[in-house]
Amino acid sequence: MAPRREPAYLQVARADDDAGEWEDDKEDPGASILEATHACTTPTGAQAWTEAAMPMEMAAQKARHRVSAAYFLAFFGLGMIIASPGPCLLAMVEQTQSKSVAQVSVIFVARAAGYLAGSVLGGVTLDALPTRGNLVLALALLAAAAGTASISGASSLSLLSSLMVMIGLAMGVTDTAANVLMIALHGKGVVDPYMHAQHFFFGLGAFSSPLALLWAMGDTYHYSGAMWAFAAVLATGGAMLLVLPSPNTGGAAAGAAQPNPETQTGGGGAVRCVGMALARREWFVVGATAMFLAQYVGIEVTFGGFIYTYSVQYTGLAQGLSKLVTSCYWGSIAAGRLLSTVLSAYKVSPKAIIEASVTGATLSSLLLCMAPASPAGAYCMNI
């Protein structure tokens, strides 16, 4: 094997050293680089660099907080409209001249179908427009605002159901887009408190909705004022997002793991087996989580939609008190989400939080079944 040839710059350096004629450091290209590096690594240089970067970082942080506030408002409005049909259900029976509550309850099915389609549509749209996520979310909020403002004018059940499909579609897009955009805005390692806060605002909006309807309706069936207020909240969030910069939701796809060369060759059989086992386990976890969330969200929304009618017709509570029962239910959900944030901060595992929550919900449901006509039971079991 031929001996390695010494680099030219070392040959020149050795010749100069032998002659005792080193050039001035300022003429050496490497010296200026070392000096610049030293200047940045010394306390004074690092401080100067940090002071120069701080204004930019503070401006970026403020911009992220403004966008986060718009997402919070979007989820606050989402909570308001998801809790609104329940306290209006008896009024909608009269409004659409339906025969019974059971007949008008088809609006929940219509909204759920729209919600399901909107959730899928939101994900597909964000994949197609990764840099226009705020525009997608803004249009969904404006569509939800238009549908919400039109509810009180629907004189037939078919028209009301069509509006509910439209609102559900917009709600599904809003739910998917706001969650994905929040993760893209803050990053997976930092987003946890912001995500908890976003869902707390959903619960806060759902808690406020029956109270707003109580103020607007009293003991009457006129709820248009509250619906216009909900639409104004949604439209405000949409208008904010139209002018705010959007995070790039394509970052997660860009950072996806590249194919492992060992899995592409015949010698990587063991690696392929491990990879397939992990993929199967991942799909099992995703499927089980999806089934759990489907049951949880279905129970949450259905119970919240019918608790008002249940309180009026089965426990004999007045309409105003029944709206308070509904508000207590959604308010308890908001409080539970806030409590989960605190527990997470104290390193309580998500598994333990879920197990305790499911156990409490099961016991409450059993107690409510044991005393179905008790007004006190309705209050306590909702909380």
Written description of the protein model:
The protein has 383 residues and is an all-alpha fold. Helices cover 78% and strands 0% of the residues. The chain contains 15 helices and no strands. It has helices spanning 8-19, 29-41, 43-82, 89-95, 101-104, 106-128, 133-150, 157-186, 192-217, 224-243, 251-254, 269-313, 319-345, 350-370, 375-382. Helix 9 (192-217) runs antiparallel to helix 13. The N and C termini lie far apart (82 Å). 32% of the residues are buried.
**What is the end-to-end distance?**
82 Å
Mean pLDDT figure: 80
Number of beta strands:
0
Which structural category do the helix and sheet elements fall into?
Answer: mainly alpha
Topology record:
Elements: H1 8-19, H2 29-41, H3 43-82, H4 89-95, H5 101-104, H6 106-128, H7 133-150, H8 157-186, H9 192-217, H10 224-243, H11 251-254, H12 269-313, H13 319-345, H14 350-370, H15 375-382
Helix pairs in contact: 2-3, 3-8, 3-9, 3-10, 6-8, 7-8, 7-10, 9-10, 9-13, 12-13, 14-15
Summarize this structure briefly:
This protein is an all-alpha fold and 383 residues long. The chain has helices at 8-19, 29-41, 43-82, 89-95, 101-104, 106-128, 133-150, 157-186, 192-217, 224-243, 251-254, 269-313, 319-345, 350-370, 375-382. The model is unreliable at 19-41 and 252-267 (pLDDT under 50).
Structural descriptors:
15 helices; 383 residues; mainly alpha; globular; 78% helix
